[in-house]
């Protein structure tokens, strides 16, 4: 548990460091309509190397829907426990903690949609859109990785747990790589989503394990 917390705070530090670098280092008008992007040389080089592949944007969008359905499944389990037990005390502590983290992730999404660090490299549909961190990467990573933490509590068959964990890990990997390859984000957008999402997963796991011991 302590290792998870230490690693989580290291990742949060790296995320904040990335934010500072994006605001101060090599800031150039390389975005749409000459919008400013930090670490421009790295981002430009990576973007030119990857190119744009909108099919992967669509694929990762569908994987995002799969992640949201997973979140809804855990929410439904918690709601069923609440209705059946007629009290929040009857709801698994881990599900209440997970719900709090879901709200936190949503709050972070809204914050970065309002406090925009940079915009996407390309217009997708209509006006310019906030791009840092990659909210898609953040949300899918957190939902699917936290599902891996919860899995043994709700699936009794060890083989089924391994298969489901492998499937959710695959969704995470394809989402990260697909988002990079699609060209709809700068490299630092996806990196930011990975750093922040991973930190939140580790904090969630540490909190759940602590809650189980109370």
From TrEMBL:
SMART domains tied to this protein: acidPPc
Record's keyword terms, sorted: Membrane, Transmembrane, Transmembrane helix
Pfam families: PAP2
Transmembrane domains' residue ranges: 62-83, 95-112, 132-151, 163-184, 190-208
UniProt cross-references to InterPro entries, sorted A to Z: PAP2/HPO (IPR000326), PAP2/HPO_sf (IPR036938)
Transmembrane helix is among the record's keywords: yes
Every Phosphatidic acid phosphatase type 2/haloperoxidase domain range: 50-205
Signal sequence annotation: none
Name listed for the protein in its UniProt record: Phosphoesterase PA-phosphatase related protein
């Amino acid at each position: 548990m302590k290792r998870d917390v230490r690693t989580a705070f290291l990742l949060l530090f790296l995320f904040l460091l990335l934010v500072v670098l994006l605001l101060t280092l090599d800031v150039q008008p390389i975005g749409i309509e000459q919008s400013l992007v930090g670490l421009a040389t790295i981002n430009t080089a990576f973007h030119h190397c990857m190119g744009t592949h909108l099919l992967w944007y669509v694929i990762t969008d569908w994987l995002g829907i799969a992640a949201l359905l997973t979140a809804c499944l855990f929410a439904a389990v918690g709601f069923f426990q609440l209705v059946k037990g007629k009290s929040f005390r009857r709801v698994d502590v881990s599900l209440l903690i997970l719900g709090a983290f879901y709200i936190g992730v949503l709050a972070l999404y809204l914050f970065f949609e309002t406090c925009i660090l940079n915009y996407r490299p390309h217009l997708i549909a209509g006006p310019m859109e906030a791009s840092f961190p990659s909210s898609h990467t953040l949300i899918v990573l957190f939902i699917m990785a936290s599902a891996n933490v919860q899995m043994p509590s709700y699936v009794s068959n060890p083989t089924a747990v391994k298969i489901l964990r492998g499937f959710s890990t695959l969704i995470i990997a394809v989402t990260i790589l697909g988002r990079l390859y699609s060209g709809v984000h700068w490299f630092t957008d996806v990196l930011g989503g990975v750093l922040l999402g991973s930190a939140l997963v580790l904090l969630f796991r540490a909190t759940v394990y602590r809650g189980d011991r109370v």
